[in-house]
Amino acid sequence: MELDPSKLESMASHEPSLEKSQTSPLAAVLRRLGAYVPERIGFAPAMALVALLASLNFLVGLGGHRSVWDESYYLTSVERYKEGTAQFASHPPLALMLMAAGDAVLHPNRGVDTHKIAWDKQVKDEELPPHFSFVGMRATSGVFAVLGAVLFFALMYRLTDSITTALVFSNLYVFENSFITHFRAVHLDAFQIAFALGALLCFVIGVQRGQRSSPLLELTLGLALGLAIMVKVNVIVLLVLPAMLVLRRVETGWKSEPRGALLGKALRDSAIMAAGCFIAVASVYTVHVAVSSHPPVVESPAGAKDAKFISPTYWAHLRHQRPLSPAVVLAAAQDYTKFMDADFHGVTKNDSNGSHPLEWPLHRGTINYRWDSSGSTAYVQLVGNVFGWWLGLLAPFATVWLLALRWWSPRPEVADATRRDLMIMLLLQYLMFMAVHIYLGTERVMYLYHYFIGLLLTFSLLPLVLAEASDRWPAVRARQGALLGGMTALLLLSFVFYSPLSFHRPLTHGECELRNVIQHVVNCR
Q1: Is residue 4 classed as helix, strand or coil in its secondary structure?
Q2: Residue predicted with more confidence, 98 or 2
Q3: 426: burial class by Cβ within 10 Å (0-12, 13-18, 19+)?
Q4: How much is the mean pLDDT over the chain?
Q5: Residue 110 carries which DSSP code?
């Protein structure tokens, strides 16, 4: 079924055709349970509901514990940005600059001397000044986590054409415990995930538009990918998305359109997406150079490390001997890249908290970010919503099975070509993601949170799997509401069960060990 290409512009008022003609199965099931679900809810109210629930999980109580995991590195980078000091980091600068901007706006450390935090590339928790507040920097990450939830809802809506069903699938993100643990801290992934979801949304809309390309849509796709790369470079694997979008358009029109014009459109669309990506990268590095106008303090450990990678052109700018120019930005970007490359090759290949990419879909490799004990023990543990991860594990296998059935036992009722193509392309993107990270795992230690984008790709396959199964088997279609209701209940139960580990809530030893009944996720102290 081809979706209306104008849907993106009319989301705020559009009601899906499925919901115009009948009450959604999920709404009917919930009504039998005595709950009230609006028969017709608009996109804007649904989006506001997702944002509200996500805000409760990602933004409330951010200052409740001291530093966790990689905050000890990122706090120092953020402080140098606040002081306007030129620097390099292990990852591109976008998320670090955004966190510095958020902290400058909220300014929770007014009156606290934070200058010493910038002295080295890492700061220990006990070295932080008394009364230091994490709220400003953590809030920025939390805000982007909420933005990611809204974009995930929009993605689910495009995949399901039903607001109610999209709300149900949005729970996969909003109540994902590992996202809550990681995104509530001064970490980079909430920013990367938000931009990656923006790119996925543009990709899905582009596929659903068929041959009708849109320069604005293609430009936005390129911008989103470029911004995601400027958070963490590993997301470069998602450049497969625009390539698949262009190839699909060429393949679809190869026999029906003039080939010269078809290839011309393909080149134009590719150029627009590449331009968007380039604009994002160039803009981020330009801002990075502009806001870091002071040379590094070479007497400090951090400044000494950075100074080794600063080229003469960039030094000339920092010493006010050259104005800001494209040549200066290019030199600074090259210097930054050399620093990241050297840092990558300096990363250890072994760590007790590390995990192999093949373990990630099985939810193995959970990490203790922090624990505090005073009678009972409170943890900040990177643990996922186990039921959600089980669904994510199922999705690629179910996709392969249903695609094989299309070839082995074709039926007219499952002839939706757009859905088939989305299933194939999202599956290929997932397999490419895993292949790249398996290779990276041979070069450096990897951690469970490196799987977040892969997890979101499996979540994106789930609504397509359900729609395909519902079309093929009337029994699944008849019970779709019950399946969605049951999925919601199990997701929420799993979220509540593991939430003490996400929100640093005290647990007795017995209560902690109870969390290991389904799968071992925490070493109880």
Answers
A1: coil
A2: 98
A3: buried
A4: 89
A5: T
Cross-strand pairs, 382: 367
DSSP state at residue 294: B
Which strands form 367-374's sheet, in the order they lie side by side?
367-374, 376-382, 506-507
What's residue 128's pLDDT?
Answer: 87
Who contacts 398 (Cβ-Cβ below 8 Å, separation ≥6)? 461, 465, 469
Place of tokens 């004990």: 373
DSSP-based three-state secondary structure for 369 = strand
Q: Give CA–CA dist 110/393, Å, rounded.
A: 46
Q: How many C-beta neighbours within 10 Å does residue 418 have?
A: 17
- Rounded-to-integer distance, Cα 129 and Cα 74, Å: 16
Q: Is the pLDDT of residue 113 over 90?
A: no
**CB < 8 Å & 24+ apart, contacts of 25-32:** 25/480, 25/481, 25/482, 25/484, 26/164, 26/165, 26/168, 26/480, 26/481, 26/484, 26/485, 27/164, 27/481, 28/481, 29/481, 29/482, 29/484, 29/485, 30/485
Residue 127 region by backbone torsions, left for phi larger than 0, else alpha for psi between -120 and 50, else beta: alpha
DSSP conformation letters of 415-430: --HHHHHHHHHHHHHH
Place of tokens 């030199």: 331
Q: Could you write out the DSSP letters of every residue in 460-525?
A: HHHHHHHHHHHHH-HHHHHTHHHHHHHHHHHHHHHHHHHHHHHTT-EE-HHHHHHTTSSS------
Contacts of 286 (CB under 8 A, 6+ apart): 324, 329
Please choose, from the candidates 139, 87, 73, the residue with its C-alpha nearest in 3D space to the C-alpha of residue 109.
139
184 in Cβ contact with 141 (< 8 Å): yes
Neighbours of 267 (CB within 10 A): 11
Residues 77-92 have pLDDT tens digits of 999 999 999 999 999 9
Is there a contact between 365 and 441 (Cβ–Cβ < 8 Å)?
A: no
Pairwise CA distance, residues 426 & 25, whole Å: 27
Hunting for tokens 């799993």 — which residue is that?
494
Say if residues 77 and 89 touch (Cβ distance below 8 Å).
yes
Q: Among 24-33, 181-190, 276-285, 341-350, where is mean pLDDT lowest?
A: 24-33
